[in-house]
Amino acid sequence: MSKVNIYLVEDNFLHREFIEQSIITSAEKLDIRYRMHTTFDIANFINQIDTHVIMDNDIYFLDIDLNETLSGIDIAEKIRKKKPPMLYLLHHFSSR
């Protein structure tokens, strides 16, 4: 079985660290061979999507509310044009 590429696009440092550690812990518990790609430069990631080769087993964790020109939904749509289907998982937290 080939390695799974896991991409994490999150602009909040604390959220990114938590999600990354959760993914790593889960992948190791399940004995999944993976390569983690945590994105710190979101603008660069957006620019590379058009030339990036997307594999069938790639997994993307995209923050919906990025402080960038594109949202996570916009990025997902660009990825989906190259390799459908796409599964959207949403979580909303409010301190109210």
Automatic annotation (TrEMBL):
Keyword hit for Protease: no
Domain Response regulatory: 5-96
Segments traversing the membrane: none
Signal peptide bounds: none
Keywords of this entry: Phosphoprotein
InterPro entries registered for this protein in UniProt: CheY-like_superfamily, Sig_transdc_resp-reg_receiver
Source organism, top-level taxon: Bacteria
Modified residues (4-aspartylphosphate): 63
Biological process, per Gene Ontology: phosphorelay signal transduction system
Protein name (record): Response regulatory domain-containing protein
Source organism per UniProt: Listeria aquatica FSL S10-1188
Lineage: Bacteria, Bacillati, Bacillota, Bacilli, Bacillales
